[in-house]
Every structure is written in C-alpha cells, then in structure tokens.
Amino acid sequence: MKLDVNGQVHEVEADATTPLLYVLRDDLKLNAAKFGCGLGQCGACVVMVDGEAIYSCITPISVLENRKIKTLEGLGTAGKPGPMQRAFIDAQAAQCGYCIPGMMMRAQALLEKNPGATEADIRGALQPHLCRCGTHSRILHAVARAGELMRGKS
Amino acid sequence: MNRRQFLQTGGALIVSFSIPARAQKLPGALAHTPQLDSWIRIGADGSITVFTGKAELGQGVKTAILQIASEQLAVDMQAIKLVTADTALTPNEGYTAGSNSMKDSGTAILNAAAQAREILLAEASRRLGAPVTAQNGAAVTADGRRIAYAQLVEGKTLSARAAPESKLITARRVMGKSIPRVDIPAKVTGGVAYVHDLRLPGMVHARVVRPPSPGAQLKSVNTDAVARMAGVQKIVRDGHFLAVVAGREWEAVQALRALRAACTWSEQARLPKEIYATLASLPTQDTVIAGKDAAQLSGRVVQAAYRRPYQLHGAIGPACAVARYDNDGLTIWSHAQGMFPLRGAVSELMGLPAEKVHCIHMEGAGCYGHNGADDVAGDAALIARAMPGKPVRVQWMREDEHAWEPYGPAMLTEARATLDGSGNVSGWQYEVSSNTHSTRPGKAGDLIAGRYVEKPFPPSPPRPLPQPEGGGDRNAIPLYRFPSRVTHRFIPEMPLRVSALRGLGAYMNIFSIESFMDELALAAKADPVEFRLRQLDDPRAKDVIKLVAEKFGWGSYKKQNGNGRGFAFARYKNLAAYCAIAMDVAVERDTGDVRVQRVVAAIDSGEAINPDGIKNQIEGGIIQSISWTTFESAMWNDTRMTSRDWSSYPILRFSHVPESVDVHVIDRPGEHFLGTGEASQGPTAGALANAIAHATGVRIRDLPFNRKRVKEMLAA
C-alpha cells in the first residue's frame, strides 16, 4: 500500500495490520519515532497524521492510506533544523533524548493548531508523554520557545 | 578491528614521552591505565582521537570530555574524535556509574591531554630552536613559525607512562563554558542516536519469551504453529530460555505473542506477602561503619523509622542489543554501563575466550543504573549463536522491562538521637537494613539468560559494597559534626532481584537523615536551615546551604494554607558533589495530592566543566526524585510482578512538574571534579518530606507519598 510520509509517497510491502511505528523504523529507516511501550502509554512513538498527534505503536497502516504522515524527520535536519528542533537545541532540552521526538511531534501538532498556546496548554498537551530523565522543565521551555520562533519572533 | 589494527591505520603515531617514574599516584583513571597512548592518539593525517572507557548515558559526558581535551590540547572540539567504551579500543574503566566519569576519566584525559601537548611543544621547540606555544593544533613560535601536531609525531613510535604532575592550561577557552551537547542535534532530528537505531546488512529481529514469574520453568512448548508464521526464521530454545527470530520486527512481536500462548510453565509461589516484615525477618550481616566506640544514648531519645519500597529504573526505551556471531567470534552493540564486565559475563555464558567477544557501547534510553541492558545483551548473544553470520537485534517488550529489570532495593532505616541543652544533637544512632545494591555482571549467572539455559550458571554471591562509597550504607554516615554510631545491616537474601538504581542507598539514607534532622529541629524548636548550619564544619557544605536559603527566600517565606517549605542537604557519598535543596510544596487534603511548586538548588561539583550540563543533571535528578518519592512502588502478587506497564507502575507526568526548578552552580576552578549525576535525588526526597510536614503538621516516613498514603496519614 501507499503511505505519504513527510510529503513523499512510499510503496510499502507490509501487512495492513502492521502498526505504523514498525513501518517507519524498519521499512522507511526513519529513526525518530521510538518504541516505548506498545500500549499508547508513554508517547515515545508519537507522530502526526493529518495534523493530529497519534501513537504510531498502536495505529495500523490500514487506516493511513491517503493521509499525510509527518515524523520528526519532516521538521528539519541537523544541518538545517526547523523551529521546533532549533528550540530544543537552544534549550538543551534533552538528556538521553529517547522520549523527545514524540514530545516534539505532540508539541508541533499543538502549535500548528494553536500558535499562541500557553504554558498550561503545553502541559496539558504533553500530559500523555513520559520522560524518565526529568527534562520536563526544559521541554516546557523549549516548546514555548518553538511557539515564539514559529510566530516569527527571533 | 582491534586496538592495534586501529592504531596502525592511516600511519597513526602515538604521542608519548618518558618522565622518570615516581612513586606518586597518577591522577584519575591514569592510575589504572597509565599509558598516554591509551587515551590520546594523534595521526599523521592530523586526526586527533581521544579514548574514554566511560559511556554516554545522556548525562553529557562526551561533551564534557571533549571540552577538557580541547582545552588542554589547544585544538577545536570539532577537530577531536571521541571513542567511548569499546573492549577493542578504549581503556577498561569498568562501569559508567557512581557519578565517577568526570573524577576518573575526565581527570585522566585532563592530564593526558596536557602532558601530550607539552611533549609536542618540547619536540617543536627543539626543532625550531625557539620557545613555542600551542595554538589550534600546532606549535607556534613568537615570530610565527609553526609545526602542526601531526608533523611532530611523524616518524616516531612513542609510548610512555603518564607523569603524576601536569602543566595544565588554566586560561579558559572551552572548559567552564556551557557548550551545547554534541549528541543533542542527532537526537532531535532523527539521526542514528541509539543502539535501537542500528541497522546492519542482513539484520534479523528477535524477541525473548520471558517466564511469567521469576524462577518459572518451561514445562512444554508447542512450536509448530509459530514456526509456520510469516517471517519466522528460527525458534531458539536452551533449557528454559526461549526466543523467536523473524525477518521483520513486527513479525517477531507477533510470533512472540503466539509463542507465549504456546508455552506451559511451572511456577512456584515465592514472592513475599509483606516486604518490610520479610526483610526484617531475614538474617543480616551487621557492620558498624562509624562510631564503634560511641557512647550509649542517654536522656530523652527522639526516634523514627523509615521505609522505602522497591522502585524501578523504568527506562522509556526497553532494553536493546544487536549481536553478530561468526567465525571470528561475537560482536555485541550494547547500551550497558560496562563493556568490559559485560564481555566477561557473555564470554562465560557462551564458552568463548574473552578475546573472541567484542563489546561496543552505543547509547540507549537513559538507564539510571543497572537495568535490563546487560541482560538483553546476553539474550542477543545466545540467539546470535543460533543465527551465525546474521546480526540479530533484540529489544525487550515493555512488560519485560517492568517485570525483569533488577529493582532498586526496598530498605529499612531507624534513627535515634538525643539533644543537649543548647538544642544540638548530642548523640545519634542509625541503622540501615538493605540487600546489596549491585548484582552487576561480571559473571554469566548475573545475566537472566544465564539462569535459564539448560546448564544454568549460579548468580554471583551477593556482596555489600565497601565504604567509603558504600552500597545500602551509601551516605548513611551524617556529615554533621555530632558523634554518630552507624550500623549497616546487610541482608544477603534477595526476595526480588535487585541492583544499582541511581544513588544506591544514598537516596534512602539522605531521605531518612534529612527527615530526621527536621524532626530534631522541631524538637529543638530550631529553624531547619540554622539547625543544619550550626552543626556543620565543612565550609563548602555551608556555602550551598546558605546560597539556597538566600535564593529561595527561606527567611521571608510566608506560609499559606496547604503549602509548606522543606529543606535538605547532602554531600553525595560524603566525598562527591555538595547539594542543597529547598522547595515549596502544596498538599491537597481532600485528595492527598502532593505538588511541588518551586524548587531551588545549589550544587558544588568542584571545577564545573560544563555548568549547563551540571544544571541539566541536577534539574533532572530533582524531577526524577519527585517522581520516585511521590508515585513509585513496585507491585506483585504471590507469584508474579503485577507492575508490568505505566498504568500499573505510574510515574510523574507533566501535571506534577514544578512551576520552576532553579539550579545554582558554584564553580570552583582548579578544584577536583566531584561526581554530580546522583547528587540531588536524596536531598529532593528529604526536602519533599519536610515540606509536607511543614504544610500539614504530619510526618510521613514511608515512601512513596502517593495520594492514598497522604490521605490516610492526614485522616489518621
């Protein structure tokens, strides 16, 4: 079946019941989405589908044809980071970093819908996400900063 | 590639020089690995490579080590390649643990880099006939003549012991600066950042069918249906160890589920009903670790007992390893904390000589101690042997991680003290009862797989870790001035599998001591901060306490209904970083919900190589400890662990993240590096307990302070 990931359409030969996470990681060789729990409890696997944050570990590809999937790789590169990535680098908002891509995609979905999201909005949006290193304060700071960058503030 | 081959490539030459051997101890890990060329190599092509036996765990050690090497070699950070823990290439620095990386490896590389630079400069000066200084990878004379480092090592094979003293560059170009972490860009853009992301040609995926409970035995398994499933390449069984290999990862997960359903296990009910009663009933080996001759307490005795449950490391990414077995031997890519000890355990497990096993560290999700990382590497090794020539990637499932990682041990402490007429502590007795805090490999029997194979290996006998660092008794001796008698009651028998969780016994002992200090301050009608200061001698301890009190506004705190302030202090291991913490906490009486609102911390890590890196570690340690202290306790029934996911083992979410966490770093240039990564967990727990007591008037001595317990305590 065909999957539109980061603006590119891929022909994927995987069983239709396969969760998106495994197709992203194993077929498309994309690293950002991570396996954390396989249960939709931690958020490490979150990506965007048609602008909404979804758990890729429990979403079968059968429901994703003709929909726009966006992963962290679609937000920029190490050489040319997008505003969300820039903000996380500036805030040094990572320790081990394993949970961070999922957080960033949730935050991206929030800010695309609500560019003026407040700290309370950001906390609420990130509530489904777990971080074990305790980087939360920096993550909140980075997402607020990403909002500023996306609104054109330098 | 082994180290010798690596060094031979590209005409590499090694910086070395000879200095008369002196009896003096060499600094940091140079004491164990004294050859300069073990740490630094300069190639004829100009490449500079630094080797550390420590591993990046997300604590930022790569960046800090590069900063040190860059400063002392006088070259840009970008010009240096850093190789981390690898049994073929780097020094053997044991485990990356105990907040020791900067003290051991950082100190070694600081001195090795300085000494290498001085040798290069001496050689340049000899050739140029003039004094030279080091500038950007070259030796330069006052009149502008220069020789690149690469040319200085040309044509020589140099190799020598480090000297005890180094001529350190004291000007600060990169050391002491908050240089952005080198590993973060890849992590926030989807680069290859973890062993989980390693994809080797022809790689297959495997999953292990862990028993339903510890010690369960595989009675029978019908593999026929699973063997016919899509993509399944192999079912591997060795005694009670069972795994399945498939071409694609999702196929492996589906096959795992089917294989689990096809197994019959024999389980024995053996998990303790009431853990604290069980621990108290087990035989102990008692050691008085301080105050052997201390007098008995006399007069009015204040006493309290504290309890800590089993707690999980709880990595967000379940353990993962990749292994390849072929005629040359076994190669393992692993996120375990010790590549050399892992090699020892795996070579025993496989019956291979150590030189046939190559362990290479790659990052994983944060581990916070000994979790499933070593075990999954053992799993991968066994499975790879059944798939010769093919790289095998094994990742644990969430329930594997929760149910099978070795937990932070449950612990019991008891404190008794007396006060004198001026309200100071006149006598102190303290006992801590605990299992070991390290069952790390070393041996095949320390790996889960080693216990379940057909010919199982015995686990290493449980052992207490010696003072001064200690295990269960880490930080059990108060740093305060008063006379104290401290007993470590080591419990060899382990009702549940346990090992090192960040801070080891320090978390519980500092929680207990700092809670008890507040209980005594209350009895002495003293301010908790003043009570601590007047019983401390160490000026650096006093400095962090005073700084936190000032920045928090301790003296001007206005108590509001439902809120309270709490304070705590410790010097980690009594020999590493100093950390003081104050916090403002709200307690909701109706629900028992505890929310930390504002935290102020001060940290003295000696010379601060990367102040923002230190802040990040302390902020993270505080929030992680708030999670442990407020939410966390492992659960089980008579046979099985029932904490198997994040709903049955809840941890902190964003709703309970403080509004602010302010960390103040006291930099002491020229002072020794003091381990920092585990400095804040204990003080956080103590400050939180003290704040709840201040907010509610109720002292809670049982961890964690979850809603149920707090509500019950407030109602009592």
Description:
The complex is a heterodimer of chains A (154) and B (716). With 154 residues, chain A is of the alpha+beta class. Chain A folds into two domains: 2-74, Roll (Ubiquitin-like (UB roll)); 75-150, Orthogonal Bundle (DNA polymerase, domain 1). Chain A has helices spanning 20-27, 83-90, 100-113, 119-126, 136-150; strands spanning 2-5, 8-11, 46-49, 52-55, 68-70. Chain A has a five-stranded mixed beta sheet, with helices on one face. In chain A, a hairpin with a 2-residue loop joins β3 and β4. In chain A, α2 (83-90) crosses α5, α3 (100-113) packs across α4 and α3 (100-113) packs parallel to α5. The longest helix of chain A has 15 residues, at 136-150. Chain A starts with a strand and ends with a helix. The mean pLDDT of chain A is 97. Chain B is globular, with a radius of gyration of 27 Å. Chain B is an alpha+beta fold. Chain B has three domains: 3-187, 2-Layer Sandwich (Aldehyde Oxidoreductase, domain 4); 195-267 and 313-404, Aldehyde Oxidoreductase, domain 4; 411-437 and 472-715, 2-Layer Sandwich (Aldehyde Oxidoreductase, domain 4). The chains are: A alpha+beta (154), B alpha+beta (716). Chains A and B meet through α1, α2, α3, α4 and α5 of A and α5, α7 and α16 of B.
What are the key terms here?
heterodimer, A: 154 residues, alpha+beta, DNA polymerase, domain 1, 5-stranded mixed β-sheet, 5 helices, B: 716 residues, Aldehyde Oxidoreductase, domain 4
Level-2 CATH architecture of the largest domain in chain B:
2-Layer Sandwich
Distance between the termini of chain A: 42 Å
Helix content of chain A: 25-40%
Fourth CATH level, the homologous superfamily of the largest domain in chain A = [2Fe-2S]-binding domain
Briefly say what this structure is.
The complex is a heterodimer of chains A (154) and B (716). Chain A has helices at 20-27, 83-90, 100-113, 119-126, 136-150, and strands spanning 2-5, 8-11, 46-49, 52-55, 68-70. With 154 residues, chain A is of the alpha+beta class.
